[in-house]
Design goal:
The chain is of the alpha+beta class. Helix content is 28%, strand content 25%. It has two helices and three strands, in the order βαβαβ. α1 (21-30) packs antiparallel against α2. The protein is globular and about 40 Å long.
């Protein structure tokens, strides 16, 4: 799963309005502030867990070390 240099590009594609508070807090913990906002994180089990929790709100791309 987490190879050297692998990064994840995470974009919010659905609104957090009318979502549970813990899902909103997970978006905040990922650093996502608004719709269509994109952040990049290292591919770690902690980040993958957060993505899994709110996968219905996100679009995730794996980036290789060269990107």
């Amino acid at each position: 799963m987490a190879t050297n240099g692998t990064r994840l590009r995470i974009t919010q594609i659905k609104s957090a309005i009318h979502r549970q508070q813990n899902q909103k807090k997970t978006l905040e913990a990922l650093g996502i502030k608004r719709m269509h906002h994109t952040v990049e994180h290292n591919d770690t089990p902690q980040i993958r867990g957060m993505i899994h929790k709110i996968s219905h709100l996100l679009d995730v791309e794996e980036l290789s070390a060269s990107e």
